[in-house]
Amino acid sequence: MSKQGGDPDHERGSDRRQTLASLLGAGLAGATLSAPGRARAEATRMAPIPGDELFMRMAIAEAAQADFPFGAVIVRDGNVVAAGRNQGTSTNDPTAHGEMVAIRRFVAARPAGELKGTTLYTSGEPCPMCMGAILWCGIGRVVFAASIEELATKIGQIMLTSRAVADAAPFATISITGGVLSAEALALFSK
């Protein structure tokens, strides 16, 4: 309920919210993130390399066994060091995406620091949650099959690319390769 003349505490809070909204709307809040001298993200696009299809087939095989068709493998020096598939339904855990399960399996057996410099292959472009985890882990390269845009033709998606998430992480250096065996990954949604 409002009083005649307004509540001064409520008005101050409202003024603060309006000021913040104005700053955010004007892009001024983000301006400090890109100030000169600040670190910048280094997300680079990388063409497929030999071995990408082999490891992507492994990620797609994980996806084929998942409760929702997403799978991932983590590779170091040409060897798969962890694998995961979407288990959101079977574990009642909405964060159990293929990438997250692979990362959790890796750190259950090894120090998290050993993720630095690995390559993560995933049947679908990582969502913002998974891409954030990938960046925090220091994984050096992500290779995905179906893009966010392609996946959005099959299922709901947060329309934020892995590149956009990586570009917002000034502490991270990562290479991103997309489209490797995309048609095969998308075909899993028809089964």
Characteristics of this structure?
191 residues; single chain; alpha/beta; 6-stranded mixed β-sheet; disordered N terminus
Write the layout of secondary structure elements.
Blueprint: H1 8-26, H2 28-31, E1 42-45, H3 52-64, E2 71-76, E3 79-85, H4 98-109, E4 119-124, H5 128-137, E5 141-146, H6 148-152, H7 162-167, E6 173-177, H8 182-187
Parallel strand pairs: 1-6, 4-5, 5-6
Antiparallel strand pairs: 2-3, 2-4
List the uncertain runs. 1-38
SSE succession: HHEHEEHEHEHHEH
| Portion in beta strands | 15-25%
| Annotation, overall tally of beta strands | 6
Q: Give a quick account of the main beta sheet: strands, pairing sense, barrel closure.
A: 6 strands, mixed
Count every helix, treating DSSP H or I runs of 4 or more residues as helices.
8
Q: What value does the Rg take, in angstroms?
A: 20 Å
Kindly report the spatial arrangement of strands forming the biggest sheet.
1-6-5-4-2-3
Shape: globular
Whole-Å distance between the termini?
Answer: 55 Å
Into which percent range does the helicity of residues fall? 25-40%
Q: State mean pLDDT (0 to 100 scale).
A: 84
Structural category is: alpha/beta
